[in-house]
Amino acid sequence: MNKINKYTINTYNRPPIILTKGKGCWVYDLADRKYLDFSAGIAVNALGHTDEELVLVLAEQASKLVHLSNLYHNEYAGELAELLVESTREGGGFDAARVFFANSGTEANEGAFKFVFHCRSLGSLSATPSPKYQEVFSPLVPGFVHSNYNDIKKIPELVNDSTCAVIIEPIQGEGGIWEASVDFLEALRKRCNEVNALLIYDEVQCGLELAIIIIVMLIIIIISNNNGNGNNNVLIIIFSNNKLANLL
Questions:
Q1: Would you call the peptide bond into 142 cis, given omega within 30 degrees of 0 as the criterion?
Q2: How many CB atoms lie within 10 A of CB 93?
Q3: Are 167 and 127 in contact (CB under 8 A)?
Q4: Taking the CA atoms of the chain, what radius of gyration do you get in angstroms?
Q5: What digits encode the pLDDT tens for the residues 198-233?
Q6: Which domains are delineated in the chain?
Q7: Residue 147: which of 164, 119, 122, 127 has the closest Cα?
Q8: How many whole angstroms separate alpha carbon 40 and alpha carbon 46?
Q9: Three-class SS of residue 19?
Q10: Is 21 helix (H, G, I), strand (E, B) or coil?
Q11: DSSP secondary structure string, 82-143?
């Protein structure tokens, strides 16, 4: 627990126990003390812990494929979608037609919002400078200002006392491989420090290795990355410094 307190951002007031295993609705700590699990992983462990059939299914699938992304078809998604839609229809809840698979309850809510507002994330969509994505999805979240990549001279003008945060991709990949210069990133870091603004590095695709390098070089405040960590087993990480972590 000392390492947890030292190296992770504290978002919950957790009891001073370390859980190591579980069976059904019971969990056990390092001293093998037994606890009744009322939280169930925040209401998601519907089958309890270490359900034998679930363990077998997970092990079998992990031995074949772990993750494909939604760029490719797999043999189960269609069957599950059909089961969900048809079961909902039979239950008489509403006239379900299609489903959208996500990884968390937050994504489920966000997905609903995005469907209402034309299916793309409004925050991220507002932050992108690409008109081809934005034009058909207005109105967007106000307050975003865009600038040219690697334009150091523009930084003092755009990043000022009214700026709460700056978000940038150190490596852009959609239109080719475009790298931010070290001088540009250092200038951003310096200016954000001067006006007390957060500096956010969007590292969703290039992942942890580059993120660590950038932390060492520039002592940034936030890095968000996903796909390179955990072999895509729903592992999303946000790195921050103590200044920000202590405010949370």
A1: no
A2: 9
A3: yes
A4: 22
A5: 888 776 555 544 443 333 333 334 444 444 433 334
A6: 2-62 (3.90.1150.10), 145-245 (3.40.640.10)
A7: 127
A8: 7
A9: strand
A10: strand
A11: HHHHHHHHHHTS---------SSHHHHHHHHHHHHTTTS-HHHHHH---HHHHGGGPSPPTT
Q: Read off the amino acid at residue 64.
A: K
How buried is 63 (Cβ within 10 angstroms: 0-12 exposed, 13-18 middle, 19+ buried)?
Answer: exposed
Whether the CB-CB separation of 83 and 102 falls below 8 Å is answered with: no
Q: Which two tokens stand for residue 197?
A: 């603004």
Convert the pLDDT of each residue in 170-205 to its tens digit: 888 776 788 899 999 999 989 999 998 888 877 655
- pTM of the predicted model, to two decimals? 0.60
- For 145-174, write each residue's pLDDT tens digit: 889 999 999 999 999 999 988 888 888 877
User: How many residues are listed for the chain in this entry?
Assistant: 248
Lookup: tokens for 143: 């307050």
> Taking the C-alpha atoms of 102, 105, 110 and 113 in order, what is their torsion angle to the nearest 10 degrees?
110
Strand (E) or helix (H) holding 26: strand 26-29
Amino acid identity for residue 174 in this structure = E
